[in-house]
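re the bet — no i am not wrong, look at it urself. input seq straight from the record:
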Amino acid sequence: MLSRARCVVLDFDGPIARLFAGGHRSQESVAGDIAEELLRIAASHRLDLAGPRGSKDPHEVFSTYARAAADRDGAHPWRIAVDEMQSALTTWELKSAEYAEPTPGAAAFIRAWSGSAGCRPAGAPLPEHKRLAVASNNHQGAITRYLEREELLGFFDGPVIGRSEADVRLMKPNPWVLHEVVRASGADASEHLLIGDSLSDRQAARSAGMPFLGYHRKPGKRQALRAPGPDGHQVPVIAAMQVLADAVGAP
């Protein structure tokens, strides 16, 4: 899959880093705390949706309420609540970027793909047209800050795109962010490879006509990603990003 890709597209939270790992407070993720805060904002406006109730995933909570607001044409108080939720989520993301936990093997892959890691045999560089991009539901500022912190931003010669703050309905599984990457890269969608850790990544890739490689550190999540799609084919899934670094550096 790597050999066929002209541009590798990485989801951010998961394949590159654990954004809400919570290193500023403990070793536990703060994602559940963020989700609870977003649900409290909804409750303060007397809004309650059964789907995200009790969820520990802040993006699930936010996107569910954002789509519900859109279905109601942004009617007050839905629009006000979603604006407040987005502001709180963005604040958490920007703060968490300072403490996000690097995904093992991710930096090695990023550097190897860009031809700067030294793990590939001498005389076997990647073709110059190989590019690297980010397509994420996270805030773009948080992504950029993390990549700067880890001295990785310069390896991304493709676009680094976060969620559209103007229209949150465009979050994955909507393929908008992948269409933006394709537009910027100038290559066909089939010449890209999305590496993601969620079913929304997988669905967005399918809608965009982009090859997809799943990654997750948890066996249960890998099983869900690997399940056969509408075409009956299983999705390839890896358990460690180091697998990709080794593949790029292999003879």
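see?? Residues 173 and 200 are 4 Å apart (CA to CA). told u. also The chain has two domains: 7-19+101-249, 31-96. so pay up
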